[in-house]
Write a structure and sequence with these properties.
This protein is mainly alpha-helical. Helix content is 73%, strand content 0%.
Length: 340
């Protein structure tokens, strides 16, 4: 993946100033009466506006971004392409498609649309920041900073630019600069939840109780995201406050039954407390939440082995190994049991 990223970003930089975008103008086949557009009051409202003003590109783009937030990415791209067919001069429409494709790991498609965005507007912040993210993933840190600084020179109050800069510093293991930059992002935009969470995580890694303040703030900003709850649990677990940690993991599982890391961490605490049967239940739930997760089967196998259920343990270890043939732990466990 990294080699692909480097390849396509290099191609982008090399051809950017010499390419132009000539989007086709297809006839849209969007059915605005489709029930999906009535599934959310906000979608219905903007769809009604589209029906009254079908040549308004901004309305299609607005609905497209709503669809993206609702994880309906195919429909989101369809709306954004319709917006482009109506008005091909808005760089943000192109960069929005590039961003969606990037999240789906379609680097080739993402670069194509980001290139089109920058051709339309060489200072387009979304396109530059997405390219910076590609450089971050390929660990080309100086190039990532260059792209971020293009944005900050134009808009010194862009919180996303500061957030991404903080992520670059974090990846470089420069914790001091990462914290400082995330704090700048929060100063610019106090409700920038992702930056608040990062501050909580970084302070937690430093064993600094300031972490709890940031994690509480992050949860208040968005109570649908259980990441801050889980991170509180990790903080308490690292400080051997196991009752508090278990409480946070329970909250996490209640709020989001598919947050598998909470099951793993709860299982680890229960194993440490010699509650093997209870730990088994946690890992068993993990296998149901993520049936393709080799660690879940290995950990359940460990519980089975400790409960003297050797046959079941062997089945779990073999299942874990089938999912990840390079996984050393189940290999060693089977060897210790004399199983080839």
């Amino acid at each position: 993946m990294k080699s692909l990223c480097t390849k396509y970003v290099t191609l982008l930089i090399g051809v950017l100033l010499f390419m132009s975008c000539n989007p086709k103008k297809p006839v849209t086949d969007i059915n605005n009466d489709d029930p999906i557009y009535n599934s959310d009051p906000r979608l219905k409202a903007v769809t009604d506006q589209i029906k009254n003003n079908p040549k308004n590109a901004d309305l299609y783009a607005k609905r497209g971004m709503m669809m993206e937030q609702l994880k309906m990415d195919s429909l989101a791209i369809k709306d954004l392409k319709t917006a482009i067919s109506i008005d091909s001069n808005i760089a943000d429409y192109y960069s929005a498609i590039g961003e969606i494709l990037f999240e789906h790991k379609d680097l080739n498609g993402s670069v194509e649309w980001l290139r089109k965005a920058i051709v339309k507007d060489p200072t387009n912040p979304k396109a530059h920041l997405k390219i910076a993210k590609m450089f971050l993933y390929s660990k080309a840190y100086p190039k990532a900073f260059e792209e971020i600084n293009v944005v900050l020179k134009r808009d010194v109050y862009n919180p996303e630019a500061y957030f991404l800069k903080g992520m670059v510093y974090k990846d470089m293991k420069d914790t001091a600069h990462a914290i400082s930059t995330f704090e700048t992002a929060v100063q610019v935009a106090p409700d920038y939840k992702d930056a608040v969470i990062q501050l909580g995580l970084l302070y937690s890694a430093k064993n600094d109780p300031t972490a709890i303040k940031y994690l509480d703030n992050a949860y208040r900003l968005d109570s649908s995201d259980v990441t801050p709850i889980f991170a509180r649990g990790v903080y308490f677990q690292n400080h051997n406050q196991l009752a508090e940690a278990k409480q946070e993991y329970r909250r996490c599982m209640i709020k989001n039954t598919r947050y598998v890391d909470a099951y793993f961490n709860m299982g680890l605490i229960l194993m440490q407390q010699d509650s093997v049967e209870k730990a088994y239940r946690m890992y068993d739930l993990a296998t149901k939440v993520q049936p393709d997760n080799p660690t879940a089967y290995y950990d359940r196998g460990v519980c089975n082995e400790r409960m003297k259920k050797i046959k079941e343990a062997v089945i779990d270890y073999k299942r874990s190994l089938a999912l990840d043939t390079s996984y050393a732990s189940p290999k060693m466990a089977l060897k210790n049991l004399g199983v080839k």
